[in-house]
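Late entry, evening session. Most of the bench is empty. Finally got around to the prediction I had been postponing all week. Sequence below, unchanged from the version circulated by S.P.
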Amino acid sequence: MFLLCIALSTANAKEAVPTAKSILEFGGGDAPLTSKLTKFSYTRHLRSAVELQDDGLKQLFRFTSSESFIGSGAESHCIVLRDLLRFWGDHEFARVLAAESPKVRAAVICALDYTWPYPGWKPSEFSVTYRLAKHESKP
């Protein structure tokens, strides 16, 4: 049992970087459906983001603080943001996020906190992005 816990802990710390193909195959889960509430083209912006275009990533950041960020679509979008952080890398992801409003930055950081695997996002992981907004303390 103890060895299994160690193996799982190590697996989380050394996750493989997702590929553009894997991100597009997931496609945002239910996020494209909820994005229709505000006529947001989720799939188009996701495609742009995996092509490493700043505007696609910016639009997905802004979706995080929109009225369409609800329910299972919001949960799926959190997974996409985490995959994009790993795909873009800390410095590039943070560079694009830093240009956003404090409201958008806070929403994105909150979404990343929500989806981070146990025991939670540590300041040493993706440290540049981590410092862009406050994190809610967990009990």
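Two things to note before I forget:
Residues 71-88 form the longest helix (18 residues).
Confidence is low (pLDDT under 50) at residues 1-12.
Will write this up properly tomorrow.
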